[in-house]
Design a protein that fits this description.
This protein is α+β, with helices and mostly antiparallel strands. The chain has four helices and eight strands; from the N terminus they run αβαββββαββαβ.
């Protein structure tokens, strides 16, 4: 979880100063989380630079406002949050938010987990 929170914090900080690209530390779990965020359209691309780093290109709209408004860790080592399949629609209070879940079938978005009829641990929320 340390690498996940570090990666999300690096992206948040890069968005605050208007960077186009940020380099984060690599792990397979972090890469899969950012692949989900990329597939949902919040970041431009996620590329592996070497065996220790991942490059994430950030997206901005035509006015220079970041596409990602907020990113936050939901599950922490001291307080884990698990969802069953039926709990996913009730959790979505924001229309354009995406929850990244770690499931038995891999890391996926809340919409994909609902389609596959599975639940899992909520890692982070992006909107």
């Amino acid at each position: 979880m340390n690498l996940v929170s570090d990666g999300l914090t690096r992206v948040r900080n890069a968005l605050l100063i208007g960077k186009n690209q940020v380099v984060i530390r690599k792990s397979n779990f972090v890469k899969s989380i950012f692949d989900v965020i990329e597939s949902e359209g919040f970041v431009g691309s996620v590329e592996v630079l070497n065996d220790r780093e991942i490059s994430v290109s950030l997206k901005y709209d035509t006015f220079g406002v970041p596409v990602i408004r907020k990113m936050r860790i939901v599950s922490k080592p001291s307080s884990r949050m698990y969802l069953q399949k039926g709990d996913i629609p009730a959790l979505k209070t924001k229309r354009f938010s995406v929850f990244v879940l770690s499931t038995s079938k891999g890391v996926m978005s809340d919409v994909e987990a609902y389609r596959q009829n599975i639940g899992g641990e909520v890692i982070c929320e992006v909107y």
